[in-house]
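To illustrate the input format used throughout this study, we show a single complete record. The first block contains the structure-token representation of the backbone; no residue identities are included at this stage. The design step must infer an amino acid for every position from geometry alone.
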């Protein structure tokens, strides 16, 4: 039986290639005049908007059935043919789509990730991050840097997470975007960490349960407890039943600022702590700490900012947190100190080939 799971390359190879890429990028910036290197970085914002346009037009979906000419593709997506060719010319130069010798356009591996039905689709993430509202928040980055506070409350009249709940069209897009981004790291996460060692796993702030369901599918001896706000987990029982996990996974609701379910051998916080500054993140940690026993483990799945000065996804997301949610990414040292202040000892940091890491901690 052929597996549909993507092959995960060895971590050493991935990190070695990443190091070489960083060295070459630094060398290039030193070789060319500074204003030329800076202009290339400025143009990256235009590439983001070009990808957003391709996702909004549904170009990848139209090419899923096979290569199309510019006229066929323009008619299918409702675009001006000349303008569409110009858009694709830029995207092709970055490996997103390709043009065959006969002139027809086709998908590339990156372009396939823009399909609605891709195994790992980033279409919703592209639509969210390229949306006018998100762009507007980032246009006020200077205000966030001056004040150290997110800009959403002043622009939208309420904190970011309240706003995406009040505007359900935007909120649903945000939820789908976060789910798709979470899916990116799923296979690397399971390749690096064995969740099957825990009998009962509590996913705190686990959304609709996609991560916990996959953990239980791969760890048949484990049981799960999914915990999130009532409106978030409302559809989770039906979804878990469809996956045949209803007898191994219970669903509880509440706020992780108050209390979380007891009885877990491991508590997962995946992409939760980075959403909050320390006062709020500390409340979450203390609520989890109160539910744990000395033998229980806390598993924090987050990006960790490396100590080196080179580029890293965590440094981009750190500013995203500053602008929108008011949270932050942290270095390993910062996590170690942050956890210690709230009753935990960091025992290990397990990297993956994705930007995510598993920080394992125990009650102090």
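Output of the design step:
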């Amino acid at each position: 039986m052929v597996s549909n799971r993507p092959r995960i390359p060895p971590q050493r190879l991935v990190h070695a290639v990443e190091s070489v890429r960083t060295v070459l990028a630094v060398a290039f910036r030193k070789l060319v005049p500074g204003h030329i290197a800076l202009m290339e970085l400025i143009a990256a914002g235009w590439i983001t908007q070009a990808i957003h346009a391709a996702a909004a037009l549904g170009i990848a979906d139209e090419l899923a059935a096979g290569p199309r000419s510019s006229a066929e593709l323009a008619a299918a997506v409702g675009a001006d043919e000349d303008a569409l060719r110009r858009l694709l010319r830029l995207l092709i130069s970055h490996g997103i789509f390709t043009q065959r010798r006969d002139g027809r356009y086709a998908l590339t591996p990156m372009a396939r990730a823009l399909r609605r039905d891709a195994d790992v689709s980033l279409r919703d993430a592209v639509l969210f991050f390229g949306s006018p509202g998100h762009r507007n928040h980032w246009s006020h980055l200077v205000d966030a840097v001056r004040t150290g506070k997110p800009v959403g409350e002043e622009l939208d009249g309420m904190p970011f997470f309240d706003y995406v709940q009040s505007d359900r069209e935007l909120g649903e897009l945000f939820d789908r975007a976060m789910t798709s981004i979470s899916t990116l790291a799923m296979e690397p996460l399971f390749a690096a960490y064995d969740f099957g060692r825990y009998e009962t796993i509590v996913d705190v702030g686990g959304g609709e349960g996609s991560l916990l369901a996959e953990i239980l599918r791969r760890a048949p001896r484990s049981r799960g407890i999914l915990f999130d706000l009532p409106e978030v987990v409302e559809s989770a029982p039906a979804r878990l039943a469809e996956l045949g996990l209803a007898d191994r996974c219970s669903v509880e609701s509440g706020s992780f600022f108050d209390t979380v379910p007891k009885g877990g051998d491991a508590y997962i916080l995946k992409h939760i702590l980075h959403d909050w500054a320390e006062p709020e993140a500390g409340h979450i940690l203390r609520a989890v700490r109160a539910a744990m026993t000395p033998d229980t483990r806390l598993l924090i799945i987050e990006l960790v900012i490396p100590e080196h000065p080179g580029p890293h996804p965590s440094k981009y997301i750190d500013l995203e947190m500053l602008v929108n949610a008011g949270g932050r990414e942290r270095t390993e040292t910062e996590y170690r100190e942050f956890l210690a202040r709230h009753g935990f000892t960091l025992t290990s940091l397990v990297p993956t080939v994705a930007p995510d890491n598993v920080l394992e901690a125990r009650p102090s």
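Structural context for interpreting the output: The radius of gyration is 22 Å. The longest helix spans residues 34-57.
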